[in-house]
Amino acid sequence: MRMILFFLKRHWLILIILLLIILSVIAAYLADFSGSKIAWGVTFSQPYTQNELGLNWQETYLAILDDLKVDHIRLSAYWNSIEKNQGEYDFADLDWQINEASKRDVKIILGVGNRLPRWPECHMPVWIKSMNAIEAEEARLAYVGKVVERYKLNPQITYWQVENEPFLGTFGVCPELNPDLLKKEIKIVKSKTKKPVLVTDSGELSTWWPITHVGGDVLGSTLYRVVYDPHIGYFRWFTPPFFYYLRATLIKKISPVKKVIVAELQAESWHKANTDLSKMEIKDHFESMDLKQFKKNIEFTRRAGFDEAYLWGVEWWYFMKTQKDYPDYWNEAKKLWPE
């Protein structure tokens, strides 16, 4: 006992500092910055739905609109789908998606550019490979201009997203980022519409600083809690809600961006050892995204203080419901859009 008392007398200041640090960490995890009601949305990818999950993409899309009854959705104008042959634009599938959402008064984020949601991240047409850098740049800017010109008067489009996480060079099958070209794309969008431009970045692997200085108006962050690495297995992010709240508050004060949303909230299991989700067993899905984790991610986003968040994985929920007879994710998500 004397030894303990002696230690406390000699090192009381260090102990107090350690106690304050521990209490601060606990407070950061328990803190709740939720404010006004969150506008929840989803990201939908036609090629992912049909090519990886093997679903009827139109059936899936209508279920999202009419069964889930989402009121915000993020869509992509995939370059390799729209301009399969140079100078020939096919908007039929994207027209259908936008028209069906518009009929139901659903708010739309429309993404344009080379790098858009879903693997391999960059979706350039095959014919672009035969061009030199200048020709490829001109072709990309022409495509961006065509897309914006076609949909610029649609009142349901709330943001135009230009590229997707362009500074995340460690992920995806993509050419090296050209920041000047990114700025030119944003400039073209802004020359044709007054709608805000959304730019996105990783919430876990980025400082957000470079992306806030390319001309965008709104920053969209990812928010992931469980990831998989073939060398270490599953890894759970330890960052508390306060981490995202503080970053968003700070970036709005020191950068040109004045609004931060969650553009990609993890609500889908992680590919284990690069296996397609459609080929994984249910137990493997549960390792990174069981129903408990699904709920925790939604609650984490509330507590982080965001007022707009787009869940990642709606196509997978439908796959689990219709192909694996596991409707729990779908039914839980329904609570976000009560009738």
Structural write-up:
- There is one protein chain.
- With 339 residues, this protein is an alpha/beta fold.
- It has two domains: 1-30; 36-334, Alpha-Beta Barrel (TIM Barrel), CATH 3.20.20.
- Helix content is 43%, strand content 16%.
- It is built from 13 helices and ten strands.
- The strands form two sheets. Strands 1-2-3-4-5-6-9-10 form an eight-stranded parallel β-barrel, surrounded by four helices. A two-stranded antiparallel sheet has the order 7-8.
- Strand 7 and strand 8 (233-236) form a beta hairpin.
- The longest helix has 19 residues, at 12-30.
Ordered list of secondary-structure elements with their pairings:
Blueprint: H1 2-10, H2 12-30, E1 39-43, H3 46-52, H4 57-68, E2 72-76, H5 79-82, H6 92-103, E3 107-112, H7 133-151, E4 157-162, H8 179-192, E5 197-201, E6 218-223, E7 226-229, E8 233-236, H9 241-254, E9 259-266, H10 282-289, H11 291-303, E10 308-312, H12 314-322, H13 328-334
Parallel strand pairs: 1-2, 1-10, 2-3, 3-4, 4-5, 5-6, 6-9, 9-10
Antiparallel strand pairs: 7-8
Helix pairs in contact: 3-4, 7-8
